[in-house]
Amino acid sequence: MRDGPIKILVPTGSLGAGALEAEVAYGVAQGARAIATDAGSTDSGAAYLALGISKNNRGSVKRDLTILMKAGAQAGIPLIIGTSGQAGGDRNVDWTRDIVLEVAGELGISPKIALLYSEQDKADLKARNAAGKIRPLPPLGPLDDATIDSCEHIVAAMGPEPYMAALRRGADIILGGRTTDTAVIACFALLHGAPSGPSWHAAKIAECGAQATAVRNKGAGVLISIGDDGFEVEPLSLDNWCDPESVSAHMLYENSDPFRLTEPGGVLDVTQAVYTQADKRSVKVTGSVWEPMPYTLKLEGAAASRFQTVMLIGIQDPDVLADIDTFHDNLLEALNQRVHATIGAAAGDFHISLRLYGWNALSGDRPPKGTPPPREVGVLFVATADTQEMASQIAKACNPYFFHYPLFMDRELPSYGFAFSPADIDRGPVFEFKLNHVVEVDDPLELVRTVWIDLRNEEAA
Amino acid sequence: MTTVKDVCRHVRSKNAGPFWVTVDLFFDGEANFRRYHDSAALGPDLFARLYGADPTLVKRFAVPSLHVVKISYPRVTAQGGMVERDMHAGQQYVRLLDVELDAETVS
């Protein structure tokens, strides 16, 4: 490349996680030409896409944006953010945009901002599906219209091209909707002619910030430097370092395949990658390969389906704990009968589950015979029904049984330790991801809408 | 009998997107990695039995440079469903720790 390696500063694993001003200053001083980070993922569940809200509190996102926008403006380098507001839906982008505008005002800067929206219209998706342009990824099957309709919001995970287009038009700040973590970081290098294999691989290694360093809790970010023959990565904290294991192990992280990563327009293949210690703090990586493929975007859809009400009790009664599986089965049966007896058919297709925290809540399986009883269990009652009101009524019907159900019917009724009064808490809808499909497009920008806010022009006007 | 926890220095599980869980077994060195990375006890049937996964979809990779075996399996229900017990699947690895690695099945 004409200008030497392209350096990109990745300040944190996710916007709002805690960028560090000194680290960002170091990265800029080392010659970073862009700051890039994602601001979310699917990992925290479908609620954030369905509701259009962030997992982070506003203050933590504003704090990071203040550090990054200030550094970007001072250095004259772009700030690139993907999957804005946790889920990257239109509302998540707008939430982030409002914070950016507030920070720009406070800093007295006038950036040119590109907003990249990738939320999808249901009718358009149905038409593309009917035209055979949408295909499932395992373990799901073909998409139907009812599934599309069940989603509150559907996003397409963008590749780097919409970002490259916005950078070409002079964006100082890009706030993207849902984007692959790697595309957010790779876009600047790809735009400036860096080879594809190292650009994508460097982006994957950097996408969780200091996760790819030797001491993951020391500092927040990394600096990647992409050249013609590969890339280097170093922590932004001077007292931390990368080693071949810390870097190569990051290909395992949250990936189902450690060697091949499918992205819009291709597959990153790192089977032949070689990781070597370049200096005390940096690792050099060569041998990363990009295999171009027909361009597809992955769809994510979040549905809000049935409603839940929960209750929580603690049990220390040693007799109950000595035979906790029997207690669970008897209580569950009694609760189901109680609903049938008191609400009847109006309860609809309801469901009750009891999660025994301290025993088997995370698996639901039976511990082997002879497992010693725990000192205490927390029992979480979860009622699911078609409406919030019905879930609430089911919990209220179950309340006296859940509170007092005895192990031995001939004894005085026990009272288990309720945590709250009122005991039942309406939890809202069950949010679920519904789509695991890709859509074929002719143009990488086809499903993306770009909106510009140029604060320089607004000042002039 | 040797179990997973006897020969691994670190084991972890995590979502790989909302429909898959991925497990990384970091063996405690070259010798145990070589000896057990192909163990039939870690085959698809184990993931069908423990997690209800479709055994034909279970994927397994050996990463010799890290002494890692990576196994990915589809979730029975997508992340966050009505009976979700482990949103990030971050605790699912624990049931693997006591799996016995039969020396006779080592290739």
Feature tags:
heterodimer, A: alpha+beta, eight-stranded antiparallel β-sheet, 14 helices, 28% strand, B: 107 residues, alpha+beta, four-stranded antiparallel β-sheet, elongated
Radius of gyration of chain B equals 13 Å
- Gyration radius of chain A, to the nearest Å? 26 Å
> What is the general shape of chain A?
elongated
For the residues shown, what is the average pLDDT of chain B? 94
Number of helix segments of chain B? 3
Number of helices of chain A: 14
Shape of chain B from CA axes? Answer: elongated
**Percent of residues of chain A in beta strands?**
25-35%
Helix and strand content put the structural class of chain A at alpha+beta
**Strand content bin of chain B:** 25-35%
Strand order of the largest sheet of chain A: 12-13-9-8-1-2-3-7-4-21
Low-confidence stretches of chain A: none
* CA(first)-CA(last) distance of chain B: 17 Å
Main β-sheet description of chain B: 4 strands, antiparallel
Tell me about the biggest sheet of chain A? 10 strands, mixed
The count of β-strands of chain B is: 4
Description:
The complex is a heterodimer of chains A (461) and B (107). With 461 residues, chain A is α+β, with helices and mostly antiparallel strands. Chain A has helices at 21-29, 47-51, 58-75, 90-107, 122-130, 145-150, 161-168, 181-191, 196-206, 244-248, 318-322, 324-342, 388-404, 455-460, and strands at residues 6-10, 34-40, 79-86, 112-117, 134-136, 151-157, 173-176, 222-227, 230-235, 260-263, 266-269, 274-277, 283-286, 289-292, 296-315, 351-357, 377-385, 417-418, 425-433, 437-440, 449-454. In chain A, the strands form 3 sheets. In chain A, strands 12-13-9-8-1-2-3-7-4-21 form a 10-stranded mixed sheet, with helices on both faces. In chain A, strands 5, 6, 15, 16, 17, 18, 19 and 20 form an 8-stranded antiparallel sheet that branches. In chain A, strand 12 and strand 13 (283-286) form a beta hairpin. In chain A, helix 12 crosses helix 13 (388-404). Chain A starts with 5 loop residues before the first strand and ends with a helix. With 107 residues, chain B is of the alpha+beta class. Chain B contains 3 helices and 4 strands, in the order αββααββ. Chain B has helices at 4-7, 30-36, 44-51; strands spanning 8-15, 20-27, 59-63, 68-74. Chain B is elongated. The mean pLDDT of chain B is 94.
